[in-house]
Amino acid sequence: MYTCYVCAKSEASIAKFRAHLHRHHVVGELTYPLLCCDCKGHFSKIYNFMRHVRSFHNSLDEAGIEACGVSSHNTSIDMPARHVQHGGAEDVDGCNDDMEMMECSNDDVSEICVDLRVEGISLVAGLRANSSIPFSVVPEVVQSFNHMSNSLVSLVQAETLNCLKSSGVDSNVIKDVKLHLDEKLKGSREPLEFLSSRYKQDSFFDGHKLAVKPETVDFGTNFSSQSGNSRLVYESFQYVPVKKTLQTLMQNRAFVEMMLEDKCVPGVLQEFVDGDKFKTHSLFSDSSKFSIIIQLFYDGLGVTNPLRGNSTLHNIGVFFYTIKNIPHRFNTCFANVHLLALCYSEDLKKYGFEPVLEEFVAEMNFLSNTGFAGNFPVIGEQTIFASLGQVTCDNLALNGILGFIESFSCDYFCSICYASQQDIQVHFREEFFQKRGLRGYGEDVRKLRQGTSKKNHIRGVKTDCVLNKIDDYHVTDNWSLDIMHVVLEGIIPLELGCILYSLCIVDKAVGFESLTCELEIFWGKLTVDKSHKPMHLTKLTEPGQGLAPTMKAVQYWTLLKYLPLVLGNFVSPGNKHWRFLLHLSHLVDLLFAPRFTQGMVHYMRSVVEDHLSQYIYLYGHYAGVRIRPKHHFLIHLPSIILKSGPLVGMSCLRYELKNSFFKRSAHIVCNFTNICRTLAYRHQQRFLFSLLSSDHCRRSPVVYQQQMVLVSSLPFCNLLCDKLGLVHDERVSLAVKLCVATVEYKQGNYIVVDAMTENGNLVFGKIVKFVSCSHNADWYIVVESLTTLGFWEHFHAYCICDLQPVSYRLLALSEMVDHHPLHCHSSVVNNTQQQLIRAPYHIFKP
Known about the structure:
- The protein is of the alpha+beta class.
- It has five domains: about 1-105, no CATH class; about 240-405 and about 670-695, no CATH class; about 405-465, no CATH class; about 485-650, no CATH class; about 700-835, Bromo adjacent homology (BAH) domain (SH3 type barrels, Roll), CATH 2.30.30.490.
- Helices cover about 40% and strands about 20% of the residues.
């Protein structure tokens, strides 16, 4: 027997159990990945899981059962498939299924038909959620499925009649059987007829209880001419109601549990809820109300080939949002980035942001004052409130949506203060600049409406932002800047260009050919971050021109991260440009830290001031090398952390990655009649499938190449016995690779296992194996303990060495101080082989 972990119902065969799991999948009740507790295998799809059960847990002999790790006595194990043995043999597809089919009742036949329908629904939902598959292909797949089913039914019917005829059954009986089969199998000939066309599929999935359809909202009207005829057309945008999306999400137990997860550590800033803005907000700070914090994002997106003519004709503006109540590690998931609106960029230029934002503002005011009530998992009967917490975009889009000027070459470009181009060249602390406030903003808007200035703005204010109508929100109190565009795509390439030019051309500390050669050798040895490998440097331009060629944000970050390890042996410690590179690395490590203390924030102010002063001192004499607006934004980042939490929580990186879905979908559909409607609808189909597949709750690990071994055969046997309460003759599951969400851990990687409070050093471990015991589903990491000799500033890395004799340590996944796997670089320093590890950012243990 196979018992379902959702409803505890038992099924006698693999076929029935597979269909039963699909029923739960269609209504979003399964949790992925599916776990086989017998051998600790993890599977992202029902098909893979059932193939595993059929291959490895389908033995009828006692020896085979024992080899698979399935108990041979009558027990059940909690898992998506809990195998139950009867009489020493497992009821599986085969002879037992044959006996069951001989005794099938009418109810069993009806249930099989329902199972077939459910599996078909799951198939079609997965196809429609795939951005690489046109919707026009899906009906063809369904028709092929129906044709195959029709052929199989005809084959079964013909073989049945032939068997009766060869057995000497009377012809009248055979005729009656044929009529009976024709009647009973009529519905099985085309089981997916209800999904055979695009219209039928749209109607079916739009009626799903978890579906949220985009709505068409009109901007205005315009005249369109085609073939000599003019007609009135409506210019519109696609809007996905926030209330409906939140209602759907709150019906998912796992999502509610994520929202209720305790994220607060006294004295530590690690989420938006730790910032001053949350504590002073009238709704969010009210503990008697269940409130949801919205973070809004806007960006322009090109969905066609930029090298072809009229490439900007179909450019669109995308509005996303995330829910800040869930931890940041879950918000990086695509499924937790929700669509708000899609519109043509040309329409935004014509009508502005107001029509789109007015819809959003109306919803926010309703949700913050009235909310929506319901019976939700975990929390029961509850009224849910929601409001806007902050807006995060790249610098240009942020100024545009907040109503400030979109030129950064003039004065008053900053959305936080009244900075001028002259002042930012000499002042590197925030207190030297007057901050924007409600009174000053109101005065600027009043003057703007009076038309007293010849310019189109007053002190940078171009229009009164409609978002100010949201209760307890104002653009002058937004406190958000995107470090992806400010640091990764702005400051790092600019300053690395200055540093490498000075090291290679001016000081001749290392040749350009040697630099590129050493970089290639290092990337070949790297065991992590391989997908973020920087592009090959083609030339070094003069300071102020950046790097060539241009790269992606994560490629710039990776280049800066490992450059001290690559060039550390070529440059003397006293080189001023090398010291500036190390200072830049130190600053970036602080900015991307996932958690802060008050002391760290105050220290960051001094680091920013020192860095800007050094930049002007070293490169200010070059023509064109000046403090740029993105440099000025650095001075506001410490205050932003105090107000809104760590900067990684407002990075646009996850939103920018989400754009790939729309670009790929637009390339696939190749129909631009109303591309916004097409993309919005496809996205919401993906949203539905994500809910059904639990893509937004990425908690469980997925393991690879696991095997069952005796505890006594392992070199860390005593450790497992002490920590997990095992005995020497017990069997455990071992693996060499494990994935949690998108983070991949392999045997031989290094991780941070502890942080010393007395000296700030990190303690590292080398991954040996991944272990799980039979009595629970948890996985542990066995690491080889290492000794940290100290932080070597010249390489901006920690120097480590092995312990003798070898010592092992057992860690749960939740016990890691940081989740990033690390690379250990071996280098000869002062004629001695040393092992160096570069931390991804500043890490401390809360």
